[in-house]
Amino acid sequence: MSPKSPGLRTGIPLLLVSLAAVAVAGFWLAGGDAHPIGGAPWRDSNEEIADGDDNLTRGPGGDVRSSRFEELVPRGQVLVGRVEDPAGDPLPGSSIRCALYAGESTFGQPRRETEIVSDENGEFSIRFPGGSGTWMLTMAATLEGYICEPQSVGLLPGRPITSARLVAHPLDITRSIRIVDSGGLAVPEARITIEQAKLETPTDLEGRAQVKLSSSFGAVWVSVAADGMGNVTRRIAPWSGTGPQEMEIVLRPGRSVAGIVRDPDGKVLHDVVVRHVGWLELRTTTAADGRYRITGIPDRRRQSLTFRKPGYLPATRVAHPTGHDVNLDVSLERGVNVCGVVRGPDDEPLGGALVTVGRNRVVGRSRGTTDEQGRFCIPAPRRGRLTMRVSYPQHVPDLREIDITTGMHELAIRLVEGSSVGGRVLDEESRPIEGAAVSAFLDRPFDLGLFTETGPDGHWLLEGVPGGELKIRVDEYGYLSETKTVNVGRRNVDVILVRAGSFDGRVVDGDGQPVTRFRVVLSPASDGSGVKRPRRVPTTWKSPGHLFEDAEGRFSSGRTPLDPGRGYRIEVTADDYATGVIPLYVPSIHPRNAPVRIQLRSGAALAGRITDAQGDPVAGAIVAPRETFPTGPGDPDHGPQTFTDRNGRYLLAGLRIGPVDIEARHPDYLPSRRSSVTRAGRVLIEDLLLIGAGSIRVRIDAKDRKSFRSRLVVEPIGSSTGRRREIDVGKDGIVRVPWLATGMWRVSLSSSHPGLDGMKASVEVVKGVEQPVLFDPGDLTCMVLGSVTIDGSPATRPVDITLERVDDQGIRTRAGNVRTRPGGTFTFRSLEPARYVFEASLQVSGQRRSGSITIRLEPGETPVTLALKTR
């Protein structure tokens, strides 16, 4: 029997896993030879390049371009495309990069890639080898002076796509971009890259660059990088005629993470893909010696890196903020495969079914598709209990829990045809909302993996859903998410979305005149406000904030969704003004909040240089008013703040006039404070000195940590500087002590645990290093190996023994009881060192026989003989 072929999946899988838009228009037919997918760049757009004997596709110079892959789309299927400008004129000589992905989306790494060039008519063609299943093809054209949005098309055996149209937009306008650091100082030689156009523009000495844009294409995503700074990704649009004409992007200090990747036997692993997890697309691969290095990672917050290599379990590691480059060595475990076969309701194999294995909502997952016999074999992302989901168009997804240990038997999965549900998404005024994301789930959001988007009229339709009741979730930026329980089969389910919380207002000076250029910063309100903190603050609204330029001083949150009923702090900063603050702003829905008015007063600024004890500049230190810092380690989430540049310089603006206490912090140094008196219109110079410091991490490795209390004492030894600290140890037994001056320190422990009390350790604190200290009392429990005798002979019948603990005042406390085994033996385990009383009594032949013994138990095994005699 021949396998079934899936239909093209519509909806938003691509929206959720790729920035590439699914758009194909202007279809036409063409004949002739076609470029095979997997070939190398070639001047003849229809030339076919042969594979070598080593199963690798090679270019004109013999260099390997890509490896051959096994599952392919139907043999002989040809796609003919054309690259043209918005007016429809052909663009010859365009380089088209094609990538083929297994399954229904462009998630993960492509199975095959190639690059071809359009001919004199702007046309190109691709012929695909054999196989079956669901595939996605992405195409992106690059041509100097143009920008093209990548296009994605579904490739299906039963529904061939034979043509595609790529529109390249001319870069005909420019916009001025200025790159500055957190203190507003220019960042020269920063690199602004438009990925879609492969265009990089450097900044000049003033931090400015004229970035080429397209009036017909619209906004683009750019990455900004500079030496010693963290990379950022921003959206740049042509100037609309309102707001700031020059766009300003702020960079903060960055760092690099480097290390070596090995296997469980300690051998280095090459070609491991290392990727930074986040909005930034930072990735690299390990070299032949297993080494890797990623630069431009934003500092001062935890950063996650993923490590992937075929045949090994993926690993995620966290690089903690240190203020300097991080060394992170990783060991990968050997992988485990999940294999099986997928069949339909009539027992026919389903080729092209998508199999996903991961945790919870199948996040951090591995994906693969079944071949034409319905078989799959994909690597598990980790060991332990995982969720597996198998989906196929118009069939109910199969969800099951699997336990990955050392291997699995082949799984047999049978899918059944599903039902459908549909309706509309409307706003509060019954207007349709286009582009809203609609998903169906049973127990947890997104567990079924069924998604779609609303059309221009707000309509949506989900197919392949299970029967009965299920939940529909609708998400759209700027609106509150809505979840609704519906009956499957309905096509008239209307979901009403309510706009999220927002704010708007004006900024004026002391005379009531508008301030025309300013930044607005959002942060959680203080814990003492009595209002719940927001679940998250959008990144673009965190310090240094959102830039506004308006002749009337107006500002608003736009479509940025704010949590209703949660407390926010709104700050406004502007040159020559002190920071204006609304300490508590609570967005409401009914009624909406009234516009706010923020009046700024004249402000002042401090500038200076921060150095260490040797006079060297300290880069990446944060400077802010002392009261804005948290009590322990951490950066302020509100108020004026800035970072030192590579020369240790800083400029802290937005300060109030009068006395101010400032503080400088860096993970490798002790905090430094300075009091000053600011004046209007003047920039005072305040230099600070930082003293090198490190930290210690104390871990108490003892059983039953919750049953005893411990207190840690840390004090300097000899010539080391610093103050004595006393810290209570929590239930987890871990204490981190920051900000210790370099030198020798003594760590001592007082505890109610007899094995821990009085333990001490000496440790050398090194600048920028967290030194581990372990207190391990060993096995300090007592074990009793006892026996019972009756009138001098071993007991032959069961005897109940009670155990009581005796304190220093002679007060007894019940500690346990046990019955003797055959032969009169008994055991008590895991007793704490102390005095104990063992007692027992027994009625034998009408006479009472009893006995007791008091003994102090010490760690280890103690033999005890309890003699019962006639009393």
Question: Can you give a write-up of this model?
Answer:
- This protein has nine domains: 13-170, Immunoglobulin-like (Sandwich), CATH 2.60.40.10; 173-251, Carboxypeptidase-like, regulatory domain (Immunoglobulin-like, Sandwich), CATH 2.60.40.1120; 254-331, Sandwich (Immunoglobulin-like); 339-414, Carboxypeptidase-like, regulatory domain (Immunoglobulin-like); 419-496, Carboxypeptidase-like, regulatory domain (Immunoglobulin-like, Sandwich), CATH 2.60.40; 504-599, Sandwich (Immunoglobulin-like), CATH 2.60.40; 604-690, Immunoglobulin-like (Sandwich), CATH 2.60.40.1120; 693-775, Sandwich (Immunoglobulin-like), CATH 2.60.40.1120; and more.
- The strands form 18 sheets. Strands 63, 64, 65, 66, 67, 68, 69 and 70 form an eight-stranded mixed β-sheet that branches.
- It contains one helix and 70 strands.
- With 871 residues, the chain is mainly β.
